Amino acid sequence: MKNLLLPLFLLCLTVVTAQEKPAALQFWENLKTHCGKAYEGKLAPHVTNDDFSGKTLTMFVRTCDENTITIPFYVGDDRSRTWVLTYEDDRIKLKHDHRHEDGSEDNITQYGGTSPNTGLPHVQFFPADVETAELIGYASTNVWWMTLKDETFSYNLQRIGSGNPPFNVYFDLSKPVEAPAAPWGWE
After folding, report:
1. What is the pLDDT of residues 62-99, one digit of tens each?
2. Residue 121 carries which DSSP code?
3. How far apart are CA 124 and CA 84, in angstroms?
4. Which of 125, 151, 118 is nearest to 20 (CA)?
5. Residues forming a β-bridge with 159
6. Neighbour-count burial of 63, counting CB atoms closer than 10 A to its CB (0-12 exposed, 13-18 middle, 19+ buried)
7. Which domains are present in the chain?
8. Alpha-carbon distance 40 to 174, whole Å?
């Protein structure tokens, strides 16, 4: 019996050390498979936002490197928004880069947050960070999240405690569209 315990122990040790990749890394690697592709999106039916309603919504997974992914989010002809994702220590950070048409930074830019844990392979949450709270006081309780499934990517925002409904936009990953021009300030 003693002779069987060592191989059994080594087998168990191998199983424990051969765990799956962290969920954040799985999300990251899956998102990178869309690099260079653009997709059209639609607002969730409950979202009423005059700045977005009736306009073509496009996300473009524009650049991907080991630790950074940039995703411009176009609202009609407005190319001012880019989601900047950074991967570090099994966490993903989301920042919103906002630019004017001349490429200069908007006064409200670089807000967002870092996932508090590794998340799930298909969902990452980003509660507002200290920088966001200092920049935009009313956004200090914001939580953004992104979902990534086989045929759908979603960008979501909940303003906790505001009484406002969540903002959700869904992109159809099964139908790439022509890649748009560079976002403002990123030429």
Report:
1. 999 999 999 999 999 999 999 999 999 999 999 999 99
2. T
3. 14
4. 118
5. 142
6. middle
7. 19-176 (2.40.128)
8. 10
